[in-house]
Amino acid sequence: MTDYPKELDQKIVLGNTNTGRSNPSYDPEKGRESLAKEEQEKFDTLTEPVCETIKRDLLMIWVKLTYVMVPRTMIKEKAKQLRDWDLWGPLVLCLLLSLCLSFSANTDDGTLVFQIVFIIVWAGAAIVAINGQLLGGNISFFQSVCVLGYCLFPLTVAAFVNMMFLQFVYFFIRVIVVGVAFIWSSYSSVGFIAEMVVPEKKGLAAFPVFLFYLFLSWFILL
Amino acid sequence: MADPRLGSYQPPVVEINKPRGEVPKKEDEEFNLLDIDFNNNDQSESDVNLDSSLSDKKQDNPVITDEDIQSDNGKFGNRLHDDQEEDINMNQLNDSLINPNRQNMADMEANEPKIVENRSSLRYFTVEYYKEYFDVTTQEVVSRLVRSCIPLYPGSIYDNGKVDLYGPIWIVISLNIAITVFGNIARYVSFDSKDEDIKYTSHLEGLTKSVPVITLYFVCMPAFLNVFLNFTGVQYVGKITFKLVSIYGYSFASFIPAIFLYMASAPVLPHRAFNSFEWLILFAAGFISLFFMFKEMVQVLRSNFEEVKVAAAVVCLGHFILILMMKWKFLS
Fold this sequence. Notes:
The complex is a heterodimer of chains A (222) and B (332).
Chain A: H1 6-13, H2 31-39, H3 50-69, H4 75-83, H5 88-104, H6 110-134, H7 141-150, H8 153-164, H9 171-195, H10 202-221
Helix pairs in contact in A: 5-6, 5-7, 5-8, 6-7, 6-10, 8-9, 8-10, 9-10
Chain B: H1 66-73, H2 82-111, H3 127-130, H4 138-149, H5 166-189, H6 205-231, H7 241-251, H8 255-265, H9 271-300, H10 309-330
Helix pairs in contact in B: 1-2, 5-6, 5-7, 5-8, 6-7, 6-10, 7-9, 8-9, 9-10
Transmembrane segments (chain A): 87-106, 112-130, 142-165, 171-192, 204-221
Membrane topology (chain A): Multi-pass membrane protein
Organism (chain A): Euplotes crassus
């Protein structure tokens, strides 16, 4: 049972940007591969216990989430983080959202709600990403999907709150909670999506994002 | 190579090594028999540059030499009447226009560098093929939307020449979402149950029925029209496959405010009036969308209306069926 060094922990979590040593060959595009090659002789991920791996991955997701969600003024930090896209975060958030909605939905068929929400999240993210590329954007497909997935976080929180606490409260309060979550999600993701296209097409790139989150918000209120 | 015997006719310059990627403009002296505009109908040049197959056209240059004309004259043994001879001379002139073309084309093919272009059918599946149809700005899309909802404008909404697919695709998706969301809200508002046991449940199965129907309608009708127009030989300007899709998509734009009005009027009006108001709104939207579609199609087709009456009837029938389905299945 090897205890991996603190330096390595910091490096992996922060994407190798804030370590003490200088690393001239670091390329943000290939962060993970160069890291793996570099550190392979130091320790072996196969021999560490599973909970360590999971803890590390969850921490990575959490760091990305805070980078994306908290409004920051430095767009460049965010861009650097998201160049290292991963789809674990979006998958976890999507599953949580679908589960909450299928438990609390006002229909007799909860599984249909789960199916619809799951498919809409992934298909919608794909369509919005392709739309961005067709409009001449310079962001890759998976980076867009990653951003849209991470920006689901406020809606997931709203769905959870709705399921646990707000079932028998006035409709108006639910509208307010879901509305705040919708505005937060849209504001975070529109910042990314609109950056990647020409200014004349910003509205065209942002409208599908609004539509996507609007539909999911309506689902929460259903 | 100007022959003084030909008078003021100057044969166009032959450029053998012109790169094939260029789309030939109409200002160039390019002569293609397949494209002769006998009635001078084609006033607009907007669709020419969008046809990617034009980049394959070779430079056909008629080089009329005197020997060709005279040798053809000699083939006719009998002495003809004056007007007939004049007619036959005209035909020979046309023939000699064609034959030198063929000879020249053979020469040119031998001299041209062999550029192998892979025009595989897989290019329809790449993103780059469709990028030219998304080349619009926000202002343009908004103006096109407004004009398609209120079709009382002169000219066409494609006045700046760009056919765009962004509008149609997102209008159809918004229509699907609008039907689901507003239909359920209207149902919720008009749900009056005196019995406390029957609670309101949302009707999500409607979504699984309405979305495929509307999307298939949006995809199949332009495809049908395209095939129909190609087979019946109706003449049209340029390539119309994506223009038909675009026109169809923009014609759905008038349905979205109609459905919004439908939802907004549900709590306001009493029940009986609401029913007839529903029909009124939907038929008004259908009428506006058909009016817009015919207005645009008239500018694309240039033929007699007798030939397209069948297509027009099918389009009207399709819209009518769509309105009926909306009223009975999707929104109630």
